[in-house]
Write a structure and sequence with these properties.
single chain; alpha/beta; 13% strand; two-stranded antiparallel ribbon; globular; seven-stranded mixed beta sheet; 16 helices
Amino acid sequence: MNIAAETIPTLEQINQTKSAIDAHIASLNQHPDRREGAMPYYLFHEPGRPIRGTVMIFHGFSARPHQMWRLADYLFQNGFNVYQPSIAGHALMYPDRNWAQVDLKPEYAEPLKDKVQKDPVLQTFLQNFAHNPTATRPGFMQQMGLIARLLLIEPQLLDIVKSLESNNDPDFDRYFTSSHLRYLTEAQARFAELDAMPGAVFTVGLSVGGAVALGLAASRPERVRGVVAYAPLLKIYGEQRRRYVNLAGPLDISELGWDEKLRFPVGCLTAADRFGSQVVMSDESVRSLSNIPTFLVLTENEDAADIETSQDFYQRIGGEGEGHRFFLYPSEDLVPHPMVDPTEVSQNMSNRFWQSLYQETFRFLTTGRANMTNLGRIEQDPGLPIVPGV
């Protein structure tokens, strides 16, 4: 079964598409907060050549489009056009003013900050953390201690955070301002740049980018013919970690992500969680995605995206019976959350099975099927296009 027929873009169609994307890139290059090395890019075949469709690839949180350049090159070399945008605000520096985030409204944030500033215990911790250049984020025990201390000095926080963690809680807008919908609206704007390009569009993404790929597809079911989401962040991994993220935003604590030169407010993670849990997992999105072939790839060695949430999501969209596919790397395969690039190391792990992952991504995008046995092999399937080594 082919989930998309080949099409032959004309010179005019390709030029119109390039012009639309180039205008967006030019606007980013002119922005005073431009982030070096984070510009979107595209790989388009020459006019008159048949293509299998166009793949939009979305990188992970705090990363750049080139995080997935090996996958982009592989798909391009095997008949797809490729467009790699930046996810919401990530083409720019200064996440506190440019990235999607959730913020406690001033009338609640300011009294809390005042109490924090007057608390010698919290002040000592925050100063120690701020002056530790190697600290990427507070450890688990530190996070639990911070939660306990915050609830001690401001018990109302428990009611406030419940409005974040509950689905469609009407009190959310009372307490918070949020720009989490930018993950969808900015992806839709990038999708519109492909209007002149004929043929099917596929969305592919990692982590928060996986959630974006799913959410975008759900919003454009008339044109998106398939989705591949690697470790999609539909909900932050671990209830305690999620509680910390939702409570710590007002403290202006920042963390270090995949870019060692860039720290972001914890509230940016809150926005990513809210986009996944409230937008992608909404009943409307689930209904839409039930009719779009979707391939979820997870790992048991997860430290960012909640596994059970993705498993439940897979069942909600209809599972294998509706043409979807699902694979979970077992813990002994030592595959980390950022599983797409073999050189990316997390928790001292990297994906040794990445070439088979690329092959099965190709198989799914062209046939709607995936060979789960091949995904667990280091040796490649000779019946599929071979993935070059590192």
